[in-house]
């Protein structure tokens, strides 16, 4: 049986081409557990064709040799086309991975478009070429040139957000790029491919080949790839980083997190609960920046834990296409089983279950759902406090004083995000300066695309967004300028 979302081609070299094999990916609704689309599964041969097209376009094509302004104009056209399809993009993402449609319309689709706009503005002011006075006399020319052929591997949880964080700076700097979407979420990239062609991206510059781990590793190892940009688990990131290290290949890795929200004693409880209801379980808890460790003083532990349990426990769980839904299903059965296993681990470790737990919520006969869960009395050494669960599971942890809170927040292999909640902004800034994470918030958390995003420690290498994110896709060349030789006699 075919569906309206079925596809029979791959985007190779900015052109739709027939795949090398008849293998298909079945995209399954996390809510109904039914097939919603079938698309080609990219093979090693397809990936080789995509890399060859990208290599040829970089080495001989016009894209890297255009002026930055010419590339900006193409990306600006893409931005306008993307803005007109936000609702379509949101619907596709909710269909394929189960993100609540309210979240898809708030973030899954609009945030990628905002990235495009931000990067275009950054590119207009970027110092593509500058002359400096040399210390030894004369002048030095410093140029930012494209890094080359990029392999981009986004995850399934925020597929457009993560793919555009790689695609747009790659395009603006003059790189060519091969994208391997996750097999769970290929549908949104088909719409993206159509928009890229309509925007006028030249032949060879972009390929999109969905596939599994074998095809992804082949892409990473391919000798014609100059840089790998990956978002995903820390375990996968370590492997990719090792491969790139062997080949001295550039890489940027945006990896896992286990972020802590520190609640100071003067914080307003209502604001804390409302903030953590979003930041702790956004996208049904499938977010690397989720604030899943809630650090509270011993004096307020029970009060805050009860309020959080009431707030989290009252969230609407159900059909991701229902605008009232706040928590949707996990992306796949394996993810449902993983999250449920961590809830059992929390019970066994002696944490106090205040709300949620394993088992499908009442009223849902199908779907890979997990009840939003809050544990209290958690020790930071427990697995539920140390390991990334990637589901709607929060741990409330008591601290003795602010120094202890900072110590607990830093007692993690991760360092991606975090927040502090307080009535005293200066006190909050003091905490922010001490917690070792790449991003942080005082009474809020967001990603501003004018500023760099990325992690410390096992949360990754490199930065996305801002001028720093654009620069990740360039090599820096220095040209020493001597005085011109005297003109010879005519």
From TrEMBL:
One of its GO terms (molecular function) is aldehyde dehydrogenase (NAD+) activity. Residues 16-479 form the Aldehyde dehydrogenase domain. Belongs to the aldehyde dehydrogenase family. PROSITE patterns: ALDEHYDE_DEHYDR_CYS, ALDEHYDE_DEHYDR_GLU. It catalyses: an aldehyde + NAD(+) + H2O = a carboxylate + NADH + 2 H(+). The active site is at residue 254. The keyword Magnesium does not apply. Its EC number is 1.2.1.3. It comes from Dietzia psychralcaliphila. This is aldehyde dehydrogenase (NAD(+)). SUPFAM superfamilies: ALDH-like. It comes from the Bacteria. The keyword Oxidoreductase applies.
């Amino acid at each position: 049986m075919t569906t309206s979302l079925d596809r029979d081609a791959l985007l190779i070299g900015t052109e739709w081409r027939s795949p090398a094999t008849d293998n298909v990916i079945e995209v399954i609704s996390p809510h109904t557990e039914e097939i919603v689309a079938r698309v080609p599964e990219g093979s090693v041969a397809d990936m080789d064709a995509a890399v060859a097209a990208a290599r040829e376009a970089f080495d001989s094509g016009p894209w890297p040799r255009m002026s930055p302004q010419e590339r900006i104009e193409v990306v600006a056209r893409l931005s306008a086309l993307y803005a007109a399809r936000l609702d379509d993009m949101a619907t596709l993402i909710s269909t394929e991975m189960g993100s609540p449609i309210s979240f898809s319309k708030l973030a899954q689709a609009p945030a990628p478009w905002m990235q495009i706009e931000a990067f275009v503005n950054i590119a207009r002011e970027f110092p593509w070429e500058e002359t400096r006075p040399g210390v030894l006399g004369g002048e030095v020319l410093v140029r930012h040139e494209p890094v080359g052929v990029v392999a981009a591997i986004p995850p399934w949880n925020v597929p457009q957000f993560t793919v555009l964080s790689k695609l747009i700076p790659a395009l603006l700097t003059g790189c060519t790029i091969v994208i391997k979407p996750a097999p769970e979420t290929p549908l949104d990239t088909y719409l993206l491919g159509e928009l890229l062609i309509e925007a006028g991206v030249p032949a060879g510059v972009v390929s999109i080949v969905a596939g599994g781990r074998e095809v992804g590793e082949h892409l990473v190892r391919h000798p014609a790839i100059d840089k790998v940009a990956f978002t995903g688990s820390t375990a996968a990131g370590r492997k990719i980083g090792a491969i790139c290290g062997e080949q001295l290949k550039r890489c940027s890795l945006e990896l896992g997190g286990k972020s802590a929200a520190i609640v100071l004693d003067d914080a307003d409880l209502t604001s804390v609960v409302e903030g953590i209801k979003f930041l702790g379980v956004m996208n049904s808890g499938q977010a690397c920046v989720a604030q899943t460790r809630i650090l509270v003083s011993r004096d307020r532990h029970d009060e805050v834990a009860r309020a959080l349990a009431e707030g989290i426990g009252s969230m609407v769980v159900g059909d991701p296409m229902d605008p009232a839904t706040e928590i949707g299903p996990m992306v796949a059965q394996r993810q449902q089983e993983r999250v449920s296993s961590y809830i059992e681990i929390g019970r066994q470790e002696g944490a106090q279950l205040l709300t949620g737990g394993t088992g499908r919520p009442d009223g849902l006969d199908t779907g890979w759902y997990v009840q939003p869960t809050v544990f209290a009395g958690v020790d930071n050494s427990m697995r539920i406090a140390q390991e990334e669960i990637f589901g709607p599971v929060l741990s409330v942890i008591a601290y003795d004083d602010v120094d202890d809170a900072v110590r607990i927040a830093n007692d993690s292999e991760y360092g991606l995000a975090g927040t502090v909640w307080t009535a005293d902004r200066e006190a909050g800034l003091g905490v922010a300066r001490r917690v070792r994470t790449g991003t942080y918030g005082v009474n809020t958390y967001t990603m501003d695309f004018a500023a760099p995003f990325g992690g410390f420690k096992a949360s990754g290498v490199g930065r996305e967004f801002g001028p720093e994110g654009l620069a990740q896709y360039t090599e820096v060349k220095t040209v020493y300028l001597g005085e011109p030789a005297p003109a010879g006699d005519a």
